[in-house]
Amino acid sequence: MSDESLAPTQPSKRATIHDVAKAANVSPATVSLVLHQKGQLALDTRERVLDAIKLVGYQRRRSEESQRRRRSTTYCMIIDDIGNPYFHEIYNGISDNLDSNDTLITLASSGDSLERQAQMLDNFVHSAIDGLVIVPASGTKTEHLDALCESNIPFLMAVRNIGFGSFDYIGGNPMLGMLIATEHLIQLGHRRIAFLGGYPANYAFNERYAGFVSMMRKHALPVEENLIVSGGSSKAFGRKAAAELLRAEDPPTAFIGYNDLVAIGIMNAVHDAGLVPGRDIAVVGYDDIPEASEQPVPLTTVATPPYELGKVIANALGRIRDDAGHGPINITYPPHLVQRQSCGGDRPSVEKGRQK
User: Fold this and answer.
1) Does a structural domain hold residue 353?
2) Which uninterrupted H or E stretch holds 331?
3) Percentage with pLDDT > 90 across the chain
4) Spatial strand order in the sheet of 282-287
5) H-type helices in 97-251, by residue range?
């Protein structure tokens, strides 16, 4: 290609992937794919990006791998919710299955804050970390990872995916998991099912919401927006949201929690109302944390075994660290339903409500 088709950047400013993208007339995500030797791009697109990299004088922030190599290999896992035991189990799975005794992984939390996540990633870009596992905060977009993409630090997305195809990903299938949970309740005879918890800016919420709506519509059941309550992922949120719905004139006969913590809060609200989960109200959770099976009424839940997921991530970390030109990693661990007593087995014993 001719240099005339490319617009050089100002020499006084360090070139970024945005400069490369503008010069090559492609997206920053495409530049990232070329830099990491991933994706199925047309040859002329890849060559145009490589030409633009040379023209604008783009250089990665860490040009020498040896700059961040030490005697010990250190990774970090950034999660969004330090209070969720599910992530602790993933961490244990990674830590127990790293490839050598001198390889370590630390745990950090963004608190589901984009600002906090940005600060942490900036610190890591200027550190000697050997790799990152990122459970992205709600609302994370590909441009939030630009600085990380410009570095030589290998990383992968875990549990939640963004920029599909642009980044290595290992996690579950939230949509399929919610399809399974919703169909289970419908097969038990429930028609008015509430879905509580999560944040709309979160990838996993949108996937689970899509699975819930799809299965309800498949069975020609109404999707009642007042029975879909988002805005939290804790026990306290589940308890409060469920209590309000249980006080309604026509309450739901079944609940699905965005995660097990929300579902446990829902069961607390059911008890507060003088009802019994599994007998009067059905409740399904998501994640299968250890606490789910230890409830007074053990919780039925959708499981994507976190420890096993951690083992898969541990195996992938060595691969992305040592092989800069590795093919894309996109591993989706299949979910399954763990049936316990919180759904009972009979048709709902409370008024099912009218279909609209």
Assistant:
1) no
2) strand 330-332
3) 52
4) 228-229, 193-196, 254-257, 282-287, 300-303, 336-338
5) 114-125, 146-150, 174-187, 203-218, 235-246
Instruction: Write down the mean pLDDT value for the chain.
Output: 85
Please check whether residue 351 lies inside any domain of the structure: no
Q: How far apart are CA 266 and CA 238, in angstroms?
A: 5
Smallest CA-to-CA distance from 159 within 268, 310, 338, 51 is with: 310
Longest dimension (CA), the chain: 76
∠ CA 87-170-145, nearest 5°, is 85
* C-alpha span between 7 and 55 (Å, rounded): 8
330 and 310 in a common domain: yes
Contacts of 251 (CB under 8 A, 6+ apart): 192, 245, 350
- φ, ψ of residue 322 in degrees (nearest 5): -95, -15
CATH number, residue 20: 1.10.260.40
- Residue 225 exposed, middle or buried by CB count within 10 Å (0-12, 13-18, 19+): exposed
Q: What is the pLDDT of residues 322-339, one digit of tens each?
A: 665 566 788 888 999 999
- Which residues contact residue 5 at a Cβ distance below 8 angstroms, ignoring those fewer than 6 apart? none
Which pLDDT band holds residue 65 (cuts at 50, 70, 90)? very low
Structure token pair of residue 241: 């949201």
How many residues in total does the chain contain? 356
- Amino acid at position 211, single letter: G
Are the CB atoms for 259 and 285 separated by under 8 Å?
yes
Residues 151 and 201 in one domain: no
Prediction pTM value: 0.75
Dihedral of CA atoms 176, 179, 185, 187 in degrees, nearest 10, equals -110
Token pair of 280, please? 């009067």
CA angle 339, 181, 343 (to 5 degrees): 45
Instruction: Give the domain range for residue 294.
Output: 174-304+338-343
